[in-house]
Amino acid sequence: MHKKTLAASGLLVAALLCLTTLSGCTRPGGGDRNYGAAADWPNHGGGVDESGYSQLAEVRANNVDRLGLAWSLDLPGEVTLQATPLAVNGVLYFSGTYAAVYAVDGATGKLLWKHDPEFWKHEPARMRLNYAANRGVAYANGRIFVATFDGRMIALDAKSGKELWSAQAIAPGAAYFSTGAPLAFGDKVMIGNGGGDFGSRGYVTAFDQATGKQAWRFYTVPGSPEENKGDPAMEAAAKTWSGEYWKTGTGGTVWNGMSYDPEFNRVYIGVGNSGPYDPAVRSPGDGDNLYLVSIVALDADTGKYVWHYQENPREAWDYKATANIVAATLKIDGKPRKVLLHAPTNGFFYVLDRETGKLISAEKTGKVTWADRIDLKTGRPVERPNIRYEASDVDIYPGPAGAHNWQPMTYSPRTGLVYIPAQQQGIRFTKSLGASGKVNPAGAMTLITGNPDDKTGWLQAWDPVRQKEAWKVKLDSFWNGGTLTTAGDLVFQGTGDGYLSAYDAKDGKRLWRFNAGLGVQGAPISYSVNGRQYVSVLVGYGGAAAVGGTHVGWKYNAQPRRLLTFALDGKAVLAPSAPADMSVAAVDDPAIKISEADVRAGEALFITCALCHGRDAVSAGVAPDLRESGVALDPEAFRQVVHDGALRPTGMPSFENLSDAELRQISAYIRAKAREALGTRKPAADAVSVGGRF
What we know:
Blueprint: H1 9-19, E1 53-54, E2 67-74, E3 86-88, E4 91-95, E5 101-105, E6 111-115, E7 138-140, E8 143-147, E9 152-157, E10 163-168, E11 183-185, E12 188-191, E13 203-208, E14 214-219, H2 225-228, H3 232-238, H4 245-248, E15 258-261, E16 266-270, H5 279-282, E17 294-299, E18 305-310, E19 326-332, E20 335-342, E21 348-353, E22 359-364, E23 371-374, E24 381-383, E25 394-396, E26 410-412, E27 417-424, E28 427-430, E29 444-447, E30 456-463, E31 468-475, E32 483-486, E33 490-494, E34 499-504, E35 510-515, E36 525-529, E37 532-539, H6 544-547, E38 562-568, H7 596-613, H8 635-642, H9 660-678
Parallel strand pairs: 1-32
Antiparallel strand pairs: 2-38, 3-4, 4-5, 5-6, 7-8, 8-9, 9-10, 11-12, 12-13, 13-14, 15-16, 16-17, 17-18, 19-20, 20-21, 21-22, 23-24, 25-28, 26-27, 27-30, 28-29, 30-31, 32-33, 33-34, 34-35, 36-37, 37-38
């Protein structure tokens, strides 16, 4: 940025206005010193606005071809890396697969300290609920905060990594887990949780940063009449539910998508999907089921409800408002508007007034079939018939993975564009019946096949004022990483097929590309140490890649998980690793006899295993491919691992509830899949059902 003298009074007034707003504004000459992040990257989304924008401009469109690897750090034992690192005073802080926290010198890559919360020792049964992942840490007042899978909020000394306190955010035995990055604001730190797919009632909890004492808690959906009594927000929400919903299940967990607004002293939370998905089971009759799939504004001091905007009334498709929430000031109809920008899974891009929660505009960013448009007068979607599969099966776009999921989008005040990790995949919804003829609360979801644009991804540049696409770049993979935008007019994004690229922020032209050796899911960051600009990203494909069927050839433990950091004229060389490989080195013992009844029963039981080991036993690198596993050939070894928990410290849950017969059935299913890969067994019909835990 060029330094300028504010000689004219008009420029002085403009500068003062910038300093008084959350999102700042653009200075003459293209500077933007009050928006996004500067030398540090202290928040999950960079600045307090969560825009994912860096003010640094040493690396620019005209010299990005000189960008090279400055250093790399291998991370043994890690698998799924989804975190966006923080950078504070020249030190990087980030979390690994199981919420281990790392502190690394930002200039050299030297590991300064590591804290391991040993999550597998705490309520190990909770490990069965979801694949292990963690999306980052928070920093405030010399402390690092991390939320563990088992629901502890831990505060660490930023200099030493020493544990300062630990507090429980999840009740023991409850069907919850934590995977998100905490949000630090004022003297508090907040976290939500996952578990909505199990019907768990959503909430967020704020703790005192210094002591770990609970400051307040806000529930996102109502409980029983006794629990709601005296709480205006819950009493109002309960009017939009029917039946004994608190017994059936509600959902509405906040596992991502939280931001803080210092101007209004509010926090904004993105509420997740329903559970059960079918509203006829969850809440028979009618009603919007607040505050599912909503952005809710809360008073930061008290946690009291301020306003909400619901993106999907009466949710039925595993849609969620958990994508990151970006604050900005946009010029709309000739006037500056303080807004929130949001691109949830349902395929619309929303611009909301962040003071009132009133909808300003909303448009489709891709293929959307559940609604024609959003009515700007009412703020409600104009829905299409039978979208809640009341009368028959129905194909819906987008599916639960969404047109945009948790991977952070970013906003550049220089271009006025938002950069979205976009994707497309449709789903067929069926109101399935069990053997008794009763409705199955989970229903069934089957991937739509045959559409050439399905299972594809894009980097999409979106104009939030005009509500139009500015440009897009088609990518070679479906499940890709978050974005970073910089004052150097660049957009950085890592992709599932293992590349980190830089694009011209104005037109989408790819200017630079680096082979990271493994797929990327999280977002890159940019920071500065001693005046030198760096770009850093975690490389560790995993998470929903397994259950979502997005296998691109990565193998468990074949490619190292790493932190890669780049700078102009960087000369480091990345050690080679195994390339992507779609082949299967299946193992089998033809002497093992399996029955078709066991295979069918094992397929049903394998649904839980598929969270990590993959749909159809194709692991996508998240966990060992069991078709290639010798353990799965040995009944005693299989029992020790699956039933007894021999590998629990490495993240493999134990399933003491499984009987010997059920272990045999799961093993039979694995044998069948191995033989299909070897060509010694005819593959089963290609009908794939998917879960919703994205």
